[in-house]
Amino acid sequence: MEQHFVKIKSIEKITHDVLRIVTEKPNAYHFISGQATEISIDKTGWENERRPFTFTCLPTDSYLEFTIKTYPSHKGVTNELLKLKEEDGLILHDVFGAIAYKGEGIFIAGGAGVTPFISIFRLLQSKNEVGGNKLIFANKSRADIILEHEFKRLLGRNFINILSDEKVEEYAYGYVTAEFLKQNIIDHKKRIYLCGPEPMMESVEKQLSNLGVEAKSIVKEEF
Ligand SMILES: Cc1cc2nc3c(=O)[nH]c(=O)nc-3n(C[C@H](O)[C@H](O)[C@H](O)COP(=O)(O)OP(=O)(O)OC[C@H]3O[C@@H](n4cnc5c(N)ncnc54)[C@H](O)[C@@H]3O)c2cc1C
After folding, report:
1. Would the pLDDT of 172 be above 80?
2. What is the mean predicted confidence (pLDDT) over 15-21?
3. Residue 187: what pLDDT?
4. pLDDT tens track for 149-164
5. Average pLDDT in the chain
6. What separation in Å is there between the alpha carbon of 188 and the centre of ligand 1?
7. What does the pLDDT read at residue 189?
8. What is the mean pLDDT of residues 164-179?
9. CA 187 to ligand 1 centroid distance, Å
10. What is the pLDDT of residue 176?
11. Among the atoms of ligand 1, which is closest to the Cα of residue 18?
C-alpha cells in the first residue's frame, strides 16, 4: 500500500459544511478525473483511520484539491478535518475509482456525490469540450449546493438543480422521481453517470431501468 505524507497548503469552507482542502502533490502521483484516494490525518490516533475522497483538481495541476462534506455528528475523520489548518499533515494512499469520462452524457449527483464530476467538468472545460453534457444535482437546500456558481458558468441551462427541502424559484422541488427523469433525460441512449448516497442511487437506477436505460450505459460509484 502506498503512503504519501503531504502538507495542507490551504483549507477553507466553501459551503456551511463542505471544506476545500489543497495539499502538496507527491512526486509521480497520477490520477485521472473521477478517481479518488484514501486519506488519513497525520496526527496521533488518526493515522490508520482512512476514508475515501475524490481529487477535484485537474490531473495536470501542481497541487491536489479535495472537496469534502463534513459530518461532525459521526465524530470521525471529516469532523477531525474541520480542526486542521495550513501546514498540518495528511497521508494519501493508492489511487482508485470507478468513475471516468466515457463520452457525452447526463451526470446525476446527490450531495457530495458530485465530487468525481468536478474534476471531469473542469477537464472538459479546459479542453473546450463541455458540449451537451448535463448535470442534474440533487440536494436538500440551496445552501448545500457545492460550486453552484462554477457549474452555472460552466453548463448554463444544462445545470439542473433539484432540492428536497427548500423551494427556490428556478429549481425543481422534491426527490428525483421517474417523472423528473423523464422530463430531463430525453435521449435514453445517452450515457448516464451516477454518484451519490446508496438510497438515492438505488432509487434512481430503478427509475432509469423503467425508462429503458440499459445498466451497461450507467457509469456509477456509491458514496
Ligand atoms: C470512492 C469514494 C469517494 C468519495 N469521495 C468523497 C469526496 O470527494 N468528498 C466527500 O465529501 N465525500 C466523499 N466520499 C464519502 C466519504 O468517504 C465519507 O463521507 C467519509 O468517509 C465519512 O467519514 P467520517 O469518518 O467523517 O464518517 P464515517 O466513517 O461515515 O463515520 C464514522 C463513525 O460515525 C458513526 N456514524 C456513521 N453514520 C452515522 C450517522 N448517520 N450518524 C451518526 N453517526 C454515524 C459510525 O460509528 C462510524 O464508524 C467518497 C466515498 C467513496 C466511496
Report:
1. yes
2. 98
3. 72
4. 999 999 999 999 999 9
5. 96
6. 32
7. 74
8. 94
9. 34
10. 94
11. 11
Residue 38 to residue 47: CA distance in whole angstroms: 11
What does the pLDDT read at residue 185?
A: 81
139 DSSP β-pair partners: 163
Task: Enumerate residues lining ligand 1, CB below 6 A.
Answer: 36, 51-54, 66-69, 71, 73-74, 76-79, 97, 112, 115, 221, 223
Q: DSSP for the chain, please give it.
A: ---EEEEEEEEEESSSSEEEEEEE--TT----TT-EEEEEESSTTTTT--EEEEB-S-TTSSEEEEEEE--GGGTSHHHHHTT--TT-EEEEEEEE-S----SSEEEEEEGGGGHHHHHHHHHHHHTT--TT-EEEEEESSGGG-TTHHHHHHHHGGGEEEEESS---TTSEES---HHHHHHH---TTSEEEEEE-HHHHHHHHHHHHHTT--GGGEEEEE-
Q: How far is the CA of 52 from the centre of ligand 1 (A)?
A: 8
Q: Label residue 56 by pLDDT band (50, 70, 90).
A: very high
Angle at 107 between CA 102 and CA 110, to 5 degrees: 135
Alpha carbons 77 and 19: distance in angstroms, whole number: 13
Which residue shows C-alpha cell 471544506? 19
Q: Which three cell numbers stand for residue 18?
A: 463542505
